[in-house]
Amino acid sequence: MLHTLALVEQGYLAEANGDLTAAWTAHNQALELALRTGSPPTAAPALEGLACALALTGDPRQASRLLGSALAARDPHSDSPNTPKTGSHPDLRRAFEALQPLLTPEELATGLKEGHRAAAEGRIPRNLKAHH
């Protein structure tokens, strides 16, 4: 778990420095590691990081689906995704806020629901390709 979280942090640092390729790579590696170890809750931070990277590189619809999967990973017992609220995890909120200006409320809600449903069915996306 610590290695996964270290990769997520490496991804956020790369993103903060403007290196979206390195950010994507680190978050994708974190997701693969979390899924290999069979820990969906550990996958949530990686999914949030990938959602942020996708929002910045021009694929906000896929980003919204990844964010929906992250919501399901954080709360596997929920029936549907809830938008992040004050007090929720800061990376989750940050990913959500990055998507709000890029999608209509309906598009964002649809993406969240699709990603949530996919994760609830055990279909968290793997080996994602970067968009540049």
Please specify the SSE layout and strand pairing.
Layout lengths: L1 H15 L3 H17 L3 H18 L2 H15 L15 H10 L5 H16 L12
Helix pairs in contact: 1-2, 1-3, 2-3, 3-4, 3-5, 4-5, 4-6
Describe what you observe in this structure.
With 132 residues, this protein is an all-alpha fold. 69% of the residues lie in helices and 0% in strands. α3 runs antiparallel to α4, α4 packs antiparallel against α5 and α4 crosses α6. The longest helix is centred in the middle third of the chain and has 18 residues. The radius of gyration is 13 Å and the shape is globular.
Task: Offer a few descriptive terms.
globular; 6 helices; 69% helix; 132 residues
β-sheet strand percentage? under 5%
Please mark out the parts with pLDDT under 50 across 5 or more consecutive residues, or reply none: none
Q: Supply the helix-strand structural class.
A: mainly alpha
List the helices and strands in order: HHHHHH
N→C terminal distance:
29 Å
What Rg, in angstroms, do the CA atoms define?
Answer: 13 Å
Q: pLDDT average, as an integer?
A: 85
Q: Please give the number of β-strands.
A: 0
Helical residue percent? 55-70%
What is the overall silhouette?
Answer: globular
